[in-house]
Every structure is written in C-alpha cells, then in structure tokens.
Amino acid sequence: METVKKKGPGSIKQDEKLGSAPLGKLIIEMALPAVAAQIINVLYNIVDRIYIGHIHGYGDMALTGVGVTFPILMVISAFSAFAGMGGAPLASIQLGKKNYEKAEQILGNSVGMLLIFSVILTVVFSVFKNPILYAFGASDTTIVYASQYISIYLLGTIFVQFAVGLNTYISGQGNAKTAMLSVLIGAVTNIVLDPIFIFVFGMGVRGAALATIISQALSAVWVIRFLTSKKSVIRIRKKYVRLNAKTVGSIAALGVSPFIMQSTESLVMITLNSGLQKYGGDLYVGTMSIMSSIMQLIIVPVQGVSQGVQPIMSYNYGAGKLDRVKGTFIRVVSVCLAATIILAGIAITYPSIYAKVFTANTDLIELTCSVMPIYFLGITVFGIQMTCQSTFLALGEAKVSLIIALLRKVILLIPLAIILPKFMGVMGVYRAEPIADFSSVAITVILFIITAKKILRNEQKNDMIE
C-alpha cells in the first residue's frame, strides 16, 4: 500500500530548498552554522577546563580530575546521538519524499527514547560513580575533583539529552541557523557563569559543573520550544512519543553507528588514561586532558561541515536526485581534508600555544609539547574518514557506517594502546593514535569506493522501476 503523504504543518519552503537551491551556496548556508554550533558546543567542556586549570593552588590536579570524567560525558552524549543522529537523517529522507507524518513519528519516538535514556544514565552513573572514575584513570589525589564535578553534572543529564539529541532535527529540516542559536545560548551562558561560580562564589569544580547544566537547560528549552512551534516543519506530538517497535528499530539501526563513534571515545579515553596512569602517572594523564580538548577543537569544525550537509544528502537521496548527492560529497570531502591538514598541522608545529591556555604548570606544558606532535600526526588525514562516515549515515546505510565506526577505535586504537606500551613504555600510548588513524583512513577509502557506487546504482534502478 502506498504511504499517504501530507503537507507539513509549517512552511515547507525551508526543507524544499534542500532539493533545489544551488549546491555551493546551500552547503555554505548549512555548513557554517553547523560548524559554529559544533565549536560553540565544545566550549562547554573546554571553557570549564581552562578555568579549572587556573584555580590557585590545585588547578593542575583539578584539571586532571575533571579530565577523568570525560568518558562519562561522552557516554551521555553518545546516547543523545543514538536517538538524534539515528533519527534525524531518516526524518530528512522522509521530508524528501514529502511524508511529513512519518517524519513526525520518527521525531516523537526519539523524544521517548531520550526520556528513557536520561533516567537510566542518571541513576547508573550516580550510584557507581566512584568505582567508574577509578576505572577511568582517577587516583586518590584526583578522585575528589572528579567526583565533585560529575555529581552535579549528572543532575542535568536530561537537559544534555534534549539539547544535543533533538537539535539534529532542527538542522535536519534546513534550519541550520536556528540549530546554531540553540547551542550559542547555552555556550554564552556557560562562559558567563563559569568564572562567577568557580571564583566569585568559590565553588571550584562544582561551580563549573553547575554552570554547565544551567546552560544546557536553556539550550534544551530553546530546542523543545522550536520543535513544538509553527516555525518547525515537523513538530513534537504527544501521540508519537509513545515508542513504536518498528520506528525505534529503524532509529537504532542507524543510530548505533554515531553511538559507537561517541561511546567508544569514552572507551578510548579509559584505555589511554589507564595506560598513562600505569606507565607514567598523574602528569601524563594531565597531558591527555589537555590534548583531548585540543582534539575536539580540531575535529568539531570538520564534524560540523560533514554533519551540516547531511540533510542535503538525505533529502536529495530520498528525492532521487543522486547528482546532488555526489556533488555535495565531492565538495565536502575536499573541505574536510583541507581543514584537518591545516588544524592538526598547527597543533603539531606550535603545541605550546595550546598547552599554555590550559595550565601554568611548566612540567605539564613541557611534557604536553613533547608528545602532541606524535599524537596528532594521523589527524591530518582524518577529514576523509569523517566525511565518508557522515555520508553513509545520510544515505541510511547502517551496516557500513557501523563498520567504519568500529574500525578506528575498537578494532585498531584500543588494542594498539594496550599492546604498544608493553614494548615502548608510556610513549606507546601516544603512538597508538597516529597508527590507528592512518590505517583506518586507508581502509575506509577502499570501503567507500566499493560500497558507495553500489548504493547509488541500486537507487537509480529503484527510480527506474518506480
């Protein structure tokens, strides 16, 4: 039976431009706000760390302690990506087919999933936080700071889930600027509140966490308000929040890839921090706190470009306009590769610029500067992998996207980070990253060349049959 298609509840001009506007102009229009949103979003954690690292008397240990909480933050973010990035491309494909009701059902089910995730994550991490933090690389010296930060942060889990998970549905309908504003509201609030709570009120790391959850709450309110308003092409409707097994299955099939991409970042940090603690000590764990923040600054602009254009690919794939899909990919992979070469190149060449922003400890600065060029070498070509990964998500190809998600971190990086230190000492932990990066990019390119042609060829055949 043919699916009944209805006109969207809001103005449909915003989503229709994805299939008709000139590609170059459209990519810029979608990518720039997405890049800005990604950069602004990463400021939540980085601004916290900059302020924390400069707390008089114990800033270096507090910075290391908060760095240990990073895997938990990534797991929370990963669940929001599971529902949001798993559902938004599917909703965009349905918009391309003019099936607005199905798109709203996908949105509603994502809301239901995020509510459930919020409750489970808050309870589990609150109950088991100390054993988890020790497993993630905390020491008896740094556990107090890690525990103080994460205890308050967990109270805002539901705000993180909605702010991050549902914002993809705003950009997915072509409203990239609105999606950027939702992040900007939270980030500006966070930057203003951080020094007030940390230094003026003397709350230390607790103040940093409180500033973050208040900021995320404001972002969440903005997102929900938009998605329930007439400005949104698709809206959150109560009848669709109740989970439907088939819809949840579709979201999960596609969402497992970004979930693994982000949750395994947590597993990577656990492995790296544990190895650095075992073979080096707190000072080496401190270098990873700094470098993980810098890594975010390099990757998020590229991630913003690749995710920003996802709705263009998804919409046109659903509409059968394959030339626009190909044209978008070629432009984006070129931009993303150039970006990683330039941004990683700066970190490799001038590491002290970054290190001094996070700490005044000369030993920590010196150690970070010595290992950063090694650690970031493979990131120079990482723009290729991110574009391929994002393209498979945009086309709804869950299996291939899952393979790529597992490849770099689970199959390559984690085993290397465990094995190499046995032969190279603590430097083996740092060298595992570039080896995994270069290897995964090479394999991803081969998979993409083989698979993408087959996907587009099959879509052309389906169009001819229809």
UniProtKB/TrEMBL annotation:
Entry-linked Pfam families: MatE
Keyword check for Membrane: yes
Family per similarity comment: Belongs to the multi antimicrobial extrusion (MATE) (TC 2.A.66.1) family. MepA subfamily.
CDD domains for the chain: MATE_MepA_like
Primary location: membrane
Alphabetic keyword roster: Antibiotic resistance, Cell membrane, Membrane, Transmembrane, Transmembrane helix, Transport
Membrane topology label: Multi-pass membrane protein
Keyword DNA-binding appears in the UniProt entry: no
Membrane-spanning ranges: 26-47, 62-85, 106-128, 148-169, 181-202, 208-227, 248-272, 284-309, 329-354, 374-398, 438-456
Source organism phylogeny: Bacteria, Bacillati, Bacillota, Clostridia, Lachnospirales
Intracellular or extracellular location(s): Cell membrane
Name of the featured protein: Multidrug export protein MepA
